[in-house]
Amino acid sequence: MFRASHYFILLIISLVSMSVFADAAAISHRFRAGQSALEVYKDKKGWQPLFIKGVNIGAAKPGSFPGEMAITQTEYSRWFRYIAKMNANTIRVYTTQSPVFYQAFYDYNRLNPAKPLYLFQGVWINEDDIAALKDPYAANEKIKTDFIADTKALIDIIHGNATIPVKPGHAGGQYTSDVSKYVIGWILGIEWDPYWVTNTNNLHPDKTNFEGKFIFTDHASPFEVFLAEVADAVVVYESERYSEQRLLSFTNWLTTDMLSHPNEPLAGEDMVTVNIEHLNADRTFLPGLFASYHIYPYYPDFMSYQHDYQEFHDVDGKINSYKAYLRDLHKQHTMPVLVAEFGIPASRGMAHINSNTGFNQGNVTEQQQGDMDARMLKDMHDEGYAGGLVFAWQDEWFKRTWNTVDFDLPDQRPFWSNAQTNEQAFGLLSFDPGIKDICRIDGSVSDWRGSKPIFQGNGVKLHAKSDEKYVYLMAEVPGFDFEKDTLLIPIDTIANQGSSTLGNTAMTFSRDADFLISLHGKDDSRIKVEAYYDAFYFINAIKHDYIEQNPDYELTNTGLFVPMQLTLSRKLFLPEDQLQLPFTSYETGKLRYGDGNPTHPAFNSLTDFAYRQHKFEIRIPWQLLNVMDPSTKQLMANLRSNNGIVAEAANAFYFGAAIVKPESTPQLVGSGEFNWNPWTMPTYHERLKRSYGILQKAFAKYK
User: Could you give the domains of the chain?
Assistant: First the structure.
């Protein structure tokens, strides 16, 4: 009797196993996880390693927020051609795109079967729900349920089998383009908020194991169990509905990695781990799992202060904390690891630095951007990563940055280009202002033909114009000695404040000046702000106590003009070193000499002014004039009387000019009026940055 029962049980197990493997055999997959690389199945060649080299594509262009889905099919088609020509093989998107995206993607690959573009599809999580609920299982598991539902909808979308109701802030419509054969896999979720992860773990201490059909966990954290539940639901749905499976991962970043960073100054950046290695794939999940990280060289701060990273040298003998981190992280994984985001912004403004390498978040030229991105990709390749995806394909005017966020109007960001906000300039494709360039800062004044001066006096003729990014000036200065003389340009932007004199000199201004441009040679030129109107000082000394207060800054019309600063870091305490680091900033008002013409070999994208044959060309970002939104003509109101930064309507600006020679200083500087028209929608034109060509060559090295 016992033997018969035992035989019956074995028979049932055998039949179930046969059924499972029969089901698995019926499921197709074109991509899979190898030992360290991702692999693609190619006819006649079988499974081949695929080194990922590509870009992340956002959903916005100038004049729109991402949720408006304003990018057209024609634009996507053109971009896909550019991306392929760059020798990229993959693109990534973060959330559901409009139907025209998938149609353009399908059309590109249909027309280019020998060199297809592949896709990583992301699924976003509602960050408002995270902030409100703080738990994926709260409110009847709303976050988890929505996450799974959105992913299932995207499975239908990539198979060209979905109709999504159109609602504000979301993509929708009829999806008929089956792009599934080109979709490598899923990168689900967002950069995890460590406090949300910690709260989830604390609320559900017993939720450590999950047994799904394809995904299971063993001694996972509650948050990792939540991810496993989502992953299994995704694989089950596509397996059952389409008999297909594809690679799967979740977004992660340095903040929630599994490494210890003892010298990280911010507790939240090293408080909790999200480890995809705690998710296991049943052998019936044929493609497998891979790890996916956003890895930037300048943040979190341990990239600058971790001791072993500070001491790590690469084969060129240079300190390379980025490569050191890549090596440490890769050791933690038994599955392929993809760097799903990396990049450097070619912006004028800067928000973080890497004190070891100079791979900083901004204040980087397009040439440097390309060189740094290419170097990071090489480090990934050399350390055995599955590849890397540059952030980002296109510039994004709607973005904000922590150290400039107080100085603009959130609802108006997409309508102008803020050179001070580094987050707007990660792209390899630039959206330059205007239907065409109205001024290229190269010393040639051909851009100014037909222009009439707004001011003439003190031996100077001054011209002005503007676009969606800059105010441009051209000064004719006959007899000017570039090495010895100084060109001063006082600017009156706001009524009832400003200085009528320049410090202790005999110079006076016909209109009270709020800003002062001083051009003196290649290395000693800058724009200064009257101390009373210095927003940097107001935020950091008056509203907060990050820097010391100065009573000389509290009165207007003192003649005191100060360098314009941008915050880099507030005070930090290094726990391992037991060292307090001071508040840091840099002089963002310093003006860079160079050639700003993109068509010239010596092009420097950070050029602020040029000089040739007794003529200056200058461009000043709107934000350096305390303009909060040039499209609606809003600038910062009086900081003290409003006890904060608020906007008021701008009137005309007034510019003067004078040449100061070693032996003489003009005593009275007049002024001329400059005004501009507001706009509803910005004009712009596309330009491939210098970094594009550099990465084109870099990508070609990796087959």
Answer: 31-428+686-700 (3.20.20.80), 439-681 (no CATH)
